[in-house]
């Protein structure tokens, strides 16, 4: 299997910096925002965006993690609703994930958010958009568009759980 690095750690940092500034600009600041990272890698990316927003705006945004397994439509095993509560009612939710592919993970995440309360708005930030949507879902903030075939695999690695920051494509 051939593996090619698409972005290194510095490229990932630049993409997240750009996403951070786009979030601030589009929302005219950070009032009433909450960052929600989809487990596993989305939460680490959301925390990094929260850190960058704090550097720019001197405000620490609430940053939550979201386990979507209960709401997935492609798992044979039923998962219980996770313990805890997301405080999303009347907030602008910035949903953060590593890769946007078919759109099913994001659909499950939106169902989960609605379970916890009616958000004012849900925006989507992804590090990689690789296309091949099965649902009418699009990202508001994209770190990198990586056109790919269905046979290719895009891997996002983050130092917090993989020991390295990079994005690779495997053929």
Number of helices: 4
β content, as a range? 25-35%
CATH architecture call: 3-Layer(aba) Sandwich
Low-confidence stretches: none
**Helix/strand class:** alpha/beta
Shape: globular
Distance between the termini: 6 Å
Strand order of the largest sheet: 3-2-4-5-6
The CATH class is: Alpha Beta
Instruction: Specify the biggest β-sheet.
Output: 5 strands, parallel
Mean pLDDT: 96
What's the domain count? 1
Number of strands: 8
Gyration radius over CA = 16 Å
> Strand-and-helix sequence, N→C?
EHEHEEHEEEHE
CATH topology: Rossmann fold
Explain the overall architecture:
- This protein is α/β, with parallel strands linked by helices.
- It has a single domain, classed as Rossmann fold (3-Layer(aba) Sandwich), CATH 3.40.50.
- The chain is built from four helices and eight strands; from the N terminus they run E-H-E-H-E-E-H-E-E-E-H-E.
- The protein has helices spanning 9-26, 41-57, 104-116, 159-162; strands spanning 3-7, 33-38, 62-66, 92-100, 121-129, 141-145, 153-157, 166-170.
- The model has no long low-confidence stretch (mean pLDDT 96).
- Belongs to the purine/pyrimidine phosphoribosyltransferase family. PyrR subfamily.
- It comes from Copranaerobaculum intestinale.
- This is Bifunctional protein PyrR.
């Amino acid at each position: 299997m051939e593996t090619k690095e698409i972005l290194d750690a510095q490229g990932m940092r630049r993409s997240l910096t750009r996403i951070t500034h786009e979030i601030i600009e589009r929302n005219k600041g950070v009032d009433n925002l909450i960052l929600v990272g989809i487990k596993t890698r989305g939460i680490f990316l959301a925390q990094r965006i929260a850190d960058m927003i704090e550097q720019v705006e001197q405000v620490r945004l609430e940053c939550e993690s979201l386990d979507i397994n209960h709401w997935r439509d492609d798992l044979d095993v039923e998962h219980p609703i996770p313990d805890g509560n997301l405080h999303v009612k009347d907030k602008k939710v910035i949903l953060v994930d590593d890769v946007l592919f078919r759109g099913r993970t994001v659909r499950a995440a939106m169902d989960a958010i609605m379970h916890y309360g009616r958000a004012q708005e849900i925006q989507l930030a992804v590090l990689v958009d690789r296309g091949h949507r099965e649902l009418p879902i699009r990202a508001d903030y994209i770190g990198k568009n990586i056109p790919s075939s269905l046979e290719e695999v895009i891997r996002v690695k983050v130092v917090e759980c993989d020991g390295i920051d990079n994005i690779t494509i495997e053929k």
